[in-house]
Amino acid sequence: MISFRSDLRVFVSTQPIDFRKGVHGLVALVAEGMKSDPYCGDVFVFRSKRKDRLKILVFDGTGMVLATKWLEESCFAWPPIEAGVMRLTATQLAMLFEGLSEWSQVVQKVVKRPTKIA
Q1: Which pLDDT tens digit goes with each residue over 50-61?
Q2: 66 burial class (0-12, 13-18, 19+ CB within 10 angstroms)?
Q3: What does the angle CA 57 – CA 62 – CA 7 come to, to the nearest 5 degrees?
Q4: What's the CA gap between 24 and 83, in Å, rounded?
Q5: Element at 10 (helix H, strand E)
């Protein structure tokens, strides 16, 4: 399993994309379609029309990384197709990447910051 740092910001394009797009096409899609900076270090996840494939795009500080994964015997559990972008936690991304359907049931705990005692 690939591990992701806990403060990672992950954005999923809810519309399927043309899976023939490469790095440059996806960078343009992030900048224009998702209205985000593809070089900020956030992770951008794209789905195919077939539910068994995904692409992950991230800038790691030295270059753009494009990873593709397809499942051999099952499909990814994607949210309903609608316009827009949804946000995931690092844990949800790891579960989605592993092909687990329960990723959408994981809820991030809200941790209160300690207050200064006067």
Answers
A1: 888 999 999 988
A2: middle
A3: 60
A4: 22
A5: strand 10-13
Dihedral angle of Cα 28, 5, 103, 24, to the nearest 10 degrees = 10
Count structural domains, the chain: 1
Domain that holds residue 90: 10-103
Does a structural domain hold residue 115? no
Per the CB < 8 A criterion, the answer to whether 69 and 87 are in contact is: no
Instruction: Please give the helix or strand (H or E) that residue 23 lies within, else none.
Output: helix 23-28
Distances (CA, A) of 103 to 63, 64, 94, 96, 108: 29, 26, 8, 6, 11
Q: Side by side, which strands form the sheet with 64-70? A: 64-70, 53-59, 43-47, 10-13, 85-88
Q: Is 27 left (phi over 0), alpha (psi -120 to 50) or beta?
A: alpha
pLDDT in tens, 13-57: 888 999 999 999 999 999 998 899 999 999 999 999 888 899 999
